[in-house]
Write a structure and sequence with these properties.
The complex is a heterodimer of chains A (115) and B (114). Chain A is mostly beta strands and 115 residues long. By secondary structure, chain B is mainly beta. Chain B starts with a strand and ends with a strand. In chain B, strand 9 and strand 10 form a beta hairpin. In chain B, the strands form two sheets. In chain B, strands 2, 4, 5, 9, 10 and 11 form a six-stranded mixed β-sheet that branches. A five-stranded antiparallel β-sheet of chain B has the order 1-3-8-7-6, with no helix packed on it. The chains are: A mainly beta (115), B mainly beta (114).
Chain lengths: 115, 114
């Protein structure tokens, strides 16, 4: 079974802090994704990566950056956390270099609260 | 951008009953997927149906796809309390640069009462 893990289930940070959210998958998947999920807005894609050191902006990349130094690890960085980044963050992965729209496997999520 | 929209937003049924959720989308697709999310957890893939398929089964799940109406339905038969979750449809959508992404609807919250 595919396993996608996220570094924290719950995180509390202060406004202005730099925040790192880590995601690791163990199935040698090419594609990795970061979403945020907010009530009434559903899942929105922040960034995704289809290869090591490659990244592509999603729908809401502002205020975020990502890093993919190794195939299995995809990090989401909030350079200066703000209260409007309080949300549930979900990481996902899928196989296939050219078909990111195929089945995605999700981690358990990180609930981030920015005070 | 195109988006799957689930209907109803919330559904409450008794154990043993069938649950039907619908998804409508706006533009042509390669495939449509359904996912389940238990409260406070990540999403779990349930089933994928391709644009050239009309119906697909997986255990107690039955998915239909009508590309002429741009709609899909998910039927859960003989529901159980453990089916209580939110259910999302997801369709593919082009991104800039030629790659594609999944676009998720806002979900149907299903409650199965014991």
């Amino acid at each position: 079974d595919v396993k996608v893990t996220q570094s924290s289930r719950y995180l509390v940070k202060r406004t202005g802090e730099k925040v790192f959210l880590e995601c690791v998958q163990d199935m040698d998947h090419e594609n990795m994704f970061w979403y945020r999920q907010d009530p009434g807005l559903g899942l929105r894609l922040i960034y995704f990566s289809y290869d090591v050191k490659m990244k592509e902006k999603g729908d809401i990349p502002e205020g975020y950056s990502v890093s993919r130094e190794k195939k299995e690890r995809f990090s989401l960085i909030l350079e200066s956390a703000s209260t409007n980044q309080t949300s549930m963050y979900l990481c996902a992965s899928s196989r296939g270099l050219t078909r990111p729209q195929e089945t995605q496997y999700f981690g358990p999520g990180t609930r981030l609260l920015v005070l | 951008s195109q988006q799957g929209e689930e209907d109803p937003q919330a559904l409450s049924i008794q154990e043993g009953e069938n649950a039907t959720m619908n998804c409508s989308y706006k533009t042509s697709i390669n495939n449509l997927q359904w996912y389940r999310q238990n409260s406070g957890r990540g999403l779990v893939h349930l089933i994928l149906i391709r644009s050239n398929e009309r119906e697909k089964h997986s255990g107690r799940l039955r998915v239909t796809l009508d590309t002429s109406k741009k709609s899909s339905s998910l039927l859960i038969t003989a529901s159980r309390a453990a089916d209580t979750a939110s259910y999302f449809c997801a369709t593919d959508s082009p991104l800039q640069g030629g790659s594609e992404k999944l676009v998720f609807g806002k979900g149907t919250k299903l409650t199965v009462n014991p």
